[in-house]
Design the sequence.
């Protein structure tokens, strides 16, 4: 088996991309929890639905950036390989 530097870089880039995509698990769990708590808050106080939904959606948008950054890093590792 003869592995040169270029093959090693490609293999490590693929492994790193897989690890970066795992960053999408956290935002998914967090958004599910936020949506559940938002639904229960609206159930307790239906008059405050607008404020609850706005705050919940803003929080979910902020949480989603982590997943998007992980996807961006994965795409960069897979398709931009400056060392090879």
Sequence:
């Amino acid at each position: 088996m003869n592995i040169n530097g270029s093959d090693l870089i490609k293999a490590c880039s693929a492994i790193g991309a897989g690890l970066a995509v795992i960053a999408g698990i956290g935002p998914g769990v967090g958004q599910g929890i936020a949506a559940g708590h938002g639904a229960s808050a609206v159930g307790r106080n239906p008059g405050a639905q607008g404020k609850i939904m706005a705050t919940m959606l803003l929080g979910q948008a902020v949480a989603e950036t982590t997943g998007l950054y992980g996807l961006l890093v994965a795409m960069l590792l897979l398709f931009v390989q400056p060392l090879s």
About this structure: The helical segments are 5-21, 25-44, 49-79. The radius of gyration is 20 Å.
